[in-house]
Amino acid sequence: MRIGIFLCGCGGLIDGILDMDLLARAAIDLEDVVRVERHPFLCSPEGRERMRETIVENRIDRLVVGACSPLLYLEEFMEVAEGAGMNRYMVDMANLREQCAWVHSHLPAEADRKAREVLEISVARVSGMSPTEHGAVAIVNPDYCDGCGVCRTVCSGNAIRIVDTNGRRSVVDPSLCEGCGVCVSSCPSGAMDMELFSNGEMLAQIDAATDQGADPNIIVFACHWCAYAAADLAGAKRMSMNPHFKVIRTICSARVDVEWIMRAISRGVDGVLVMGAEPGHCRYMVGSLRTRNRMILLNNLLDQLGFDRARVRFAWADADDADKFHRVVSGFIDDIMELGPSPVGCSLGAGEDRFRAMVE
Length: 360
Ligand code: SF4
Ligand code: SF4
Known about the structure:
Helix content is 41%, strand content 18%. By secondary structure, it is α/β, with parallel strands linked by helices. α1 (20-28) packs parallel to α5 and α2 (45-57) packs across α3. The two termini are 29 Å apart. Bound molecules: iron/sulfur cluster (2 copies). One iron/sulfur cluster (SF4) is lined by residues 140, 145-151, 170, 187, 189, 191-192. One iron/sulfur cluster (SF4) binds at residues 138, 154-155, 157, 159-160, 172, 177-183.
């Protein structure tokens, strides 16, 4: 892997708040990072051309842009990457502006720490990527598929057929797949994945986020279309927030796999919040309702494990509802602080190995 990192100052909107020298020094030490560059305006024609040249000169095959929100410029930077000969999907943006500099400007040292963490998570994400042809579409591993048809039942895009040649198995039509990922997280055989937002990418981000020693350490899985946009809006409105949460962007809240949450719990995270669109507003129609139902089942599983269900929560937030994002996340952080550190993160004594084995 040859990872390139570009850090944007955004004409003072980022580098007027964050310590970019510190961030650049931390970035070059990250595994597989071969180049770190800074620019005052990466989205400008000059910034994009410099990015293209640097990718070619350094044979960069994975790109992280530390700048504003991926909802604003990810597509443009993917085009730059493609123009430089990269696979266009091997790009991520670390949201340094809306979700670090702006929302935590009242705590500069904490904003710097969060920026380093967000950058590490993005580097982990691109490390977990593989070149893809279609982007966010579902794929099936026929070796694991037993043709149960659950994926076809949950697909609102009518993109899945069950064929019966040498045994039943599922086939996804990429031209019909809307990329919600609900089939992947619903498959009981672990036979499905996505080309983009793959399990590899998502688990790499969870591992990076749980390796970080924030106290408390809280992961918020936010849907690209709604809750993530609400988080950006909270930043744009300069709402001050407690920095002890890390947002991991998913394509839909229904893409959030129980395995991801259990992985985070088994690695000692103090709390997990999953956020999707209000009922009726989900881009994939009923994705967030499916997520809510899955979270109820997960709560029952957590009860059986003896793990406090209050540490895992689901909430709705539409793209324009920054107030709700702020209220829900702040309330969740307060509740987790009251609960204290995760029992998995602490020593459980004799019961620890058994608990971890159950979670695994
Ligand atoms: S849910 Fe999984 S195992 Fe069942 S048909 Fe779909 S891919 Fe195959
Ligand atoms: S990702 Fe969504 S739209 Fe695509 S096949 Fe799976 S359920 Fe259907």
